[in-house]
């Protein structure tokens, strides 16, 4: 059985969904993840997913806080 990493169920977005929000190519989103601008979560199938809260914070220009959330 797979458990979420956080106590509450967190909404995850696909690279295509993130790309649409930023109006960029999905490959750009993957590059951002590799550069450390976004935290990616890997599915069992190896696909990347992104936390909606983190994506919206980046979209709004809010500096990300890794601890104490």
TrEMBL record:
<dbReference type="InterPro" id="IPR000551">
    <property type="entry name" value="MerR-type_HTH_dom"/>
</dbReference>
<feature type="domain" description="HTH merR-type">
    <location>
        <begin position="12"/>
        <end position="69"/>
    </location>
</feature>
<dbReference type="InterPro" id="IPR048048">
    <property type="entry name" value="BldC-like"/>
</dbReference>
<protein>
    <submittedName>
        <fullName>DNA binding domain, excisionase family</fullName>
    </submittedName>
</protein>
<dbReference type="InterPro" id="IPR009061">
    <property type="entry name" value="DNA-bd_dom_put_sf"/>
</dbReference>
<dbReference type="GO" id="GO:0006355">
    <property type="term" value="P:regulation of DNA-templated transcription"/>
</dbReference>
<dbReference type="InterPro" id="IPR041657">
    <property type="entry name" value="HTH_17"/>
</dbReference>
<dbReference type="InterPro" id="IPR010093">
    <property type="entry name" value="SinI_DNA-bd"/>
</dbReference>
<dbReference type="GO" id="GO:0003677">
    <property type="term" value="F:DNA binding"/>
</dbReference>
<dbReference type="Pfam" id="PF12728">
    <property type="entry name" value="HTH_17"/>
</dbReference>
């Amino acid at each position: 059985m797979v458990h979420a990493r956080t106590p509450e169920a967190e909404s995850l977005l696909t690279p295509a969904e993130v790309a649409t929000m930023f109006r960029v190519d999905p490959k750009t989103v993957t590059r951002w993840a590799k550069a450390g601008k976004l935290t990616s979560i890997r599915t069992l199938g190896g696909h990347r997913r992104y936390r909606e809260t983190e994506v919206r914070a980046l979209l709004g220009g809010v500096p990300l806080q890794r601890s104490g959330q």
